[in-house]
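User: Second chain of the day. Same drill as before.
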Amino acid sequence: MGGKRWAAGALLALSLLWVGSASPLADAQGRAADSREEPAPAAVLAGAPAEAVPEHPEETVSGLVLTEIAEPPGSLTELRAAEVGRVPEEGRDAACWAVYRELLPLGESGSFQGEEPASRGEAVGALYRLSGILVQVDSCPYPDVPEEYQAAVAWADSVGVSNGAEEGRFAPLSPVTRSQLAVMLFRFAAWRGENVESAVSWNGEKVPAYAEEALNWVMDRGLYGGMTDHGLYPDLPVSRLQLACALARMQESRDPLAGALVLPEGGGAGICPQKHEELSRAIAAAARRHGAVGVQVAVIEDGAVTDAFHYGWAVQGSVPMTDAHKLRTASLSKVAVGLSAALLEEESVVDYDVDIGTYWGVETWKPVTIRDLLTHTSTLADSESMAWDYQGVKAQLSGAFGYGGGTPGNLRYWSYNNHAFGVLGQTLELAAGRYLDDVLEERVLGPLGADCSFAAGELEEPELVTHLYRTDSLSRSAASLRSVRRWSAPGAMGRQFAGGFTASARDCAKLTALLAGDGCFEGVRLMDAASVARMESYGDLALPGGIYQALPMRLRFGVYGRERLYYHTGSAYGVYNLLSYDPDTGDGVVVLTMGADGRKDCYDIYAVCGEISRAVYEAVA
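Assistant: Same format as last time:
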């Protein structure tokens, strides 16, 4: 392989600029973080490895030991016989190749774990091994790098392939994002002397300035083939399988084995975009039939957000609705709270079955758990007179006046409870010591590029928040919605958790797609499948109307042409919304409306939402 040959002259000197605990090159140029808008050192990118092989495969220079990586013999037949474990057929070749070439190891369980996010350390380690030489070091310029990645990080820092994250850290265990990997691949190619000019200019969603040139080149080279059919998602982590595919494509002209691999081709944009005009007419007709002022719709196919629609006005008569506008989602907020609970349970921050008094520091009058709150079986009192602030809720939990009759957790005492979800949101924030917005941002909203918030005034683009209309009259202004800002401390206020989550239908659909994909989004796992299964779990007792209560969604069988759907409705201030997905196919729909008539269909779902959802489900079946 051409990338395995080094010159004994200038290039070798460049690769050894880092010595001991400091890098002269980094000191001279400043370490350009992968997540900041700074180019790699020009001197490094100008260098290209020559074809000459060092006369001695191993020698010590300035305390560093250089070892040429051996070329493992083998064939495609032998490679495909490798056991990588639970890797889908599409992409299996790349996983086998990455394991065979010792670029990515198998996990402790012996499986490739292709859906798991690749770490920054793994990405740099794979490129280090592709470079064709091992640089053994006694220390590393970044104090947060464990021993297994120190040599690779020292090499990457010295040649400018990757210069850390921020504040002198490399963050080797953090997931590598699509933007960060693009920069690493771009700089690695430049270091190898490849042409890194690009004729492509990405005109989709906004990308970080530091990665713009690199992402254009990666897209031009087709290195992200099969990853970007539904959007670039620049801040989404790259899965281990996606990393293997990108590396294999990068090596196609250098490694005959890589050139013979069958790799994912992509091209599956979904059925809905092909029927966009037809569905647009159906959505507009349903909106007019029910008198809606404004409507947003987003479509999920096989766990991917494939299309979005809008109708009517964001501000009646003056500002047309767009896909980017932000609407109050009303009780769809409860799904966001339930998702937060699942993520915190994964992190062992909360336990679904522990009395919430543990997190409030009080002895509850009745033992109530997070599971009880999620399933509307807490028996907490729910009325407009109940307090939403920390001290008021704390008093409610410890006194008989705060409860109704029945036994918490028993579905026979089920009662839809807005106030309980305020208590749930506060409980989660108290347990985590963080705002739920921050929990969601770190784990899902940031990676998905979703601008959503329980406090509309905290959105990145609050100017996109819409008015709310009841029929054709203003019920709540955008200014009043934007006036809701972050409360004084985590757990201080619970009102917004019952219905204040503000988002576009497209961004809400990203969260729905995560659930429809059993915790995976665009091929990368962001939450455990077991966590989604727990959210989808339900009891044997059906509620009135034949629905089953999950955590916190509802399950209904035989609806809108689907065998079963998980869903949640929402209404407030003239808003009528529906979120739903088919767990068997991964299809789903999010409908946000305002000003509609609020009539319900035979499933007790708002008819305007149901008619639109039925049209979409039939179109993508």
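The longest helix spans residues 418-432.

User: Great, on to the next one.
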